[in-house]
Amino acid sequence: MGAFEDLVDRHRMAVYRLARSITGNHHDADDVAQETFLRVYRSLGSYDASRPFKPWLKRITYNTSLNAVRNGKSRSRGKVDGDIPEVADQSPHQFEKIEAKQSAAKVDDAVQTLPSELRATLLLRAVEGMSYKDIAHTMGVKIGTVMSRLSRARERVLDVLEPAGSAAQRGEKR
After folding, report:
1. How far apart are alpha carbons 152 and 118 in whole angstroms?
2. How many Cβ atoms are within 10 Å of 61's Cβ, its own excluded?
3. Are 103 and 67 part of one and the same domain?
4. Total structural domains in the chain?
5. pLDDT score, position 96
6. Which backbone phi and psi does 49 adopt, to 5 degrees?
7. Is the residue at 106 inside a domain?
């Protein structure tokens, strides 16, 4: 039991971050993290110790997170709860900070409009910094599928962020 507690302590934040990036809020991510570690505990007997542990754990976290979102258990309905602190200083850069906060909120909103598999792929790459190979393994898809989903996710986010007409201009530039 002590070894399992060490394992949970060592991987708790990574599991939470991945769950948060998929579910979109703290409460669901917390629930998913707990469920993930329950599933890991129950499945330890079937874990192949000759294989790396982290990808196995991320796959369980990913599947548990998607199940929570798909089954309607998620308390978030399209908006990630705010990670960006309120700007309360009077520094010369306060307007830049406010603008950065507003930009980040717009990006968060745009990402939340994506279908769950596109959003998860984008967040695994952008937030978790995972390689295409690791994302493919975690999601149970081919690397080409990861590349395609990332491309579609980026396009859709840009379409939401850019004013009408800019998407057409962007397409002409390619």
Report:
1. 7
2. 27
3. no
4. 2
5. 66
6. -65, -15
7. yes
